[in-house]
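Lay summary. Proteins are chains of building blocks that fold into shapes, and those shapes determine what they do. In this project we predict the shape from the chain. Here is one chain we studied, written as its sequence of building blocks.
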Amino acid sequence: MSTKLRHDWTRDEVLALFDQPLNDLLFQAHSLHREFHQPNSVQVSRLLSIKTGRCPEDCAYCPQSIRFKTGLKEEALMQVSEVLEQAKSAKESGASRFCMGAAWRSPKDKDLPTLVAMIEGVRELGLETCMTLGMLNDEQAKVLAEAGLDYYNHNLDTSEDYYQDIISTRTYDDRLQTLECVQNANIKVCSGGILGMGEDKVDRAGLLMQLANLQRHPESVPINQLVRVAGTPLEKARDLDPIDFVRCIAVARIMMPASTVRLSAGREQMSDETQALAFFAGANSIFYGERLLTTDNPVESQDQALMSKLGLATC
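And here is the predicted shape, written in a compact code that computers can read:
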């Protein structure tokens, strides 16, 4: 690979990427995508909410917060056997990674043995494992690493400057500290953000700069489009311009060329054309299944039809 991975991006440099003519930006991003990845291959994950609702955080986009009245049905931590049944189904549908999410501020030590059993069981099925459980300390990260956890998801969500407009119950530094714990435990990092929360181009640049300037680029970078949920503070957020979304995918690919960039939440609201542009710009991962944690996702048959139309293979 001839392209050097950078960890010293400036905001002006990132904004200059965003400001390029779209064709130039897409050409640069797609050229790097071809250098580092199979251009017509898309990695497929399945996401399961293993513990739903009653989260004490106040993330303005999230229907799982106990602070918002969204009508979400609360569910306790699932049994290991239930999770493994879902993992088997995910593998049969073509997923290569199984992601498990729990609505916690951070896991309690009493829950770790159950989480370890889930990780070990899913790995025995031949799937990669990912978890998102909130904030972690060094010891918890070590336990998950020893169980064989492949990826840990902990999104930064937005820029440091805009973060206080979205969340008040934990700090940006709290999120960065969790990423540091995960990387120190040699677990791969899955970290990205959400577009369409009222942020501007400068905030999107700040988010990607923060991710790209980590000591090690996140191995997986999910780029989400806000799914507006009634009862949350962002239920009436303005529509996101599809071209602005594609630009962010392209800039993420340029800044973190070796990372997997996941076209994540919000695909239910995207046209085939928007998704096709996103794949060309460098996205090479999606979630299969009609449900993410608590919001809708395209049904598998719809995704399979799109992949076939675009000539993309799933892996």
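What the prediction tells us: DSSP finds eleven helices and ten strands in the chain.
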